[in-house]
Amino acid sequence: MSGSPNRPVRRRAFVLGGAAAAGTAAFAGPLATAASAASFGWSDDGSNYVVDTGANLVFKVSKSNGDLTSLVYRGTEYQGYGGKNSHVESGLGASTVTITQSGTTILVSVAYGTLKHYYAARSGENNIYLWTGKADTSVSATRYIVRVKAGLFLNDEPDSYTYAPTVIESADVFAKPDGQTRSKHYAKRRVIDYAAIGWTTGSVGLYIVRSHHEKASGGPFYRSLLRHQSADGGGLYEILYYGENQTEAERFGLQGPYVIAFTDGGTPSSSLYPGTLTTTWADSLGISGHVPASGRGRVAGVGISGRDSAYAYTVGLANPAAQYWGPARASDGWFSIGGVLPGTYTLTVFKGELAVHTTSVTVTAGATTTLNTIAVASSNDPANASAIWRIGTWDGTPAGFKNADLMTYAHPSDVRAAAWTGNVVIGGGSETASFPAYIWKDVNSGLLVYFKLTAAQAAAAHTLRIGVTTAYANGRPQVTVNSWVSSIPSPPTQPSTRSLTVGSYRGNNHTFTYSVPASAWLTDTSQYNVLRIDVVSGSGTTSYLSAGTSIDALDLLV
């Protein structure tokens, strides 16, 4: 099946995460070994700077706009679909482009107003190292798109297709004749879940190895475009700021490096992955905003107490200038986060995706800030509260609810989705799996939960909680218990763009609480009390773009 690199071979696309990458790197072999190629160096063909890595890769950068106009590996041109080049955002336009060579490194520098972009090649490597420095909002988004010719890689991953016969939303979500949906937005994986994305034929692999996302926004659980394929080619993305479903303000500064890597069909070398990639050779290149390892620090914690061993914990650092994260060790909560720019950060401990502890930490260059055991207070984890009944788990995600898994790579109208209605009877044993992950004003508002109370329980007031992970168009729940109706709660701050229909439930986790008086309950303990949940908002349009929200958990407290 390997054959010529020109022959498309149907193989699964790869998305490598930290643990997966570590497990596969030993089997992937090294980067493709050097074959017959010219010596390392560069030339000028009049319109482009032509860089030969001295291995199997020759690429061209436009002298007029900084686009990557050619990407030839082992004699095959991979660059280009639909007549488009690879570039920052959708192409920068007229730019100042220069090239320099320093020993075994060639650097192409692109200046477009206040934005600076760089391509670097190293002698004997089939890699292109990229940095993008954004100083302000003069360029709307920050992304790099590697545009690949049609027919070189085939892929059946649902998150990779952007075309189908029927447009069902905003010209970027499509339906196939069989009712399955496709969109380039359906990335499936969070930033924390992957280190490299790409395709392989078995004999040739093309990947983007992501950066550490230091200057990106959204934290470790953000989802955005990773790749797509269409009839005229495919694209691989490094998304640094897309302006969609963002939970934080945009950060500015130099981001990178991220890497366009060709391989002999295996996954990229783990030495290229975020957290392991060392680029001391870049320290002297004059890249604007570059901070060497010596100018960075580390945060380490000896452990985290008060954890629920059923969940993975993540530690995040964030301030207006930068963001970082790392896993907490399952056995004791130990963590270490390196490569951190000096400054004061908010440190957040996440149980799953739910923040359960925050504190402040200061990082200095060349030093490690060591923290004693962090104690997660019992009251900070809503799962610790005693409940009469509970639907879902308090982990900051809709995991376990009906259709939750599908919604990261499909539209809610997808034929594979179960009915979005779903009234629940407490005590049936399948409450969470029967309850929809999302509720919309125009689709399934008015969901009912049936439950019985003992005489003692019915004689007391109780707190009802509904946790949400995001909302669209200010959608929020108003509840009715039997004949008692709650007030309409104020909407929490949430992203203003689409989320629920483009593969993301990530927003700002928020808990709505309702103080239900004892007079609301039925005094006949043989009868079911009825909780009705309605989504209210004056915003949104219709159907799946009406006001809606994603559910984390709901419970009635003792």
Write structural notes for this entry.
- By secondary structure, the chain is mainly beta.
- The protein is 3% helix and 39% strand.
- It has three helices and 39 strands.
- The strands form nine sheets. The chain has an eight-stranded antiparallel sheet.
- Strand 3 (48-52) and strand 4 (57-62) form a beta hairpin.
- It is globular.
- The chain starts with 13 loop residues before the first strand and ends with a strand.
- Mean pLDDT is 91; it is low at 1-13 and 18-37.
What is the radius of gyration computed over CA atoms, rounded to a whole number of angstroms?
26 Å
Helix content: under 10%
Q: Order of strands in the sheet with the most strands?
A: 1-16-17-20-11-10-9-8
Q: Into which percentage range does the β-strand content fall?
A: 35-45%
Number of strands: 39
Q: What is the makeup of the main sheet? A: 8 strands, antiparallel
* Overall pLDDT: 91
How would you describe the shape? globular
State the secondary-structure class.
mainly beta
Quaternary state of this entry equals single chain
Low-confidence sequence ranges: 1-13, 18-37
Could you tell me how far the N terminus lies from the C terminus, measured between alpha carbons in angstroms? 62 Å
Please give the count of helices.
3
